[in-house]
Amino acid sequence: MNTRSTLKVLVLILTALIVLGLTFFFFHLKVISEQNVTLVISDTSSGKVYGKWLLEKSGEFAVEFIHSVNQSPVREIFKIDGGVIRPHSVRFSSFGAGMDLGEGLTLSRDGDSFVMSGFDTSFSELNFIVGTVSDHLLFINGETVSLLELCGRNAHITIRIK
Fold it and tell me: What is the dihedral of CA 135, 83, 48, 76, to 10 degrees?
């Protein structure tokens, strides 16, 4: 084999290695980006972003508020699944208006709390009015965020994932 033929073979091998390397790199980048989603809280009317948090795709977050009738905390726990927000469970300590067991839902006990689960629905976004009676708290990535401090009293907010 002459030098020119050897050089052509080496160029072809090098080109193939570069193509394979770039393919692996972009595939790996796509997999990494699909594993993480961002939870975004914004003003419902203006779209002003109040905060963003990176979550794993199967991540979990919760919103807690004081129930207006029974005056005790209610924590709604959500999970990210397939690009949507799914209610996972609701924790509360006493029954009140709107705290009844819906069709298909189960009720269990965890210490002093009731846990309602079995929800079969999903949302592209969640809407809240913050702190009308008391604060709303966001529990995310081991952090507790006061939505009253972040967004202001009576702020109409939208929670979505990107």
Answer: -10
Reported as a single tens digit per residue, the pLDDT across 99-122 is 677 788 999 999 889 999 999 999
DSSP state letter for 123: B
Give the HSE-up count for residue 142: Cα atoms under 13 Å, Cβ half-sphere. 1
Strands 156-161 and 125-129, sheet pairing: antiparallel
Long-range CB pairs of 15-24 (<8 Å, 24+ gap) are: none
CA distance 36 to 162: 9
Q: Are 151 and 41 in contact, with CB atoms under 8 Å apart?
A: yes
What size, in residues, is the chain? 162
| pTM recorded for the entire structure | 0.74
Q: Which of 154, 147, 149 is nearest to 132 (CA)?
A: 154
In a domain, 9, yes or no: no
Number of domains in the chain: 1
Q: Tell me if 41 is assigned to some domain.
A: yes
Contact 118, 102 (CB under 8 A): no
Give domain status of residue 14, yes or no.
Answer: no
Asked if residue 6 belongs to a domain, the reply is no
Q: Which range of residues forms the domain containing residue 128?
A: 37-161
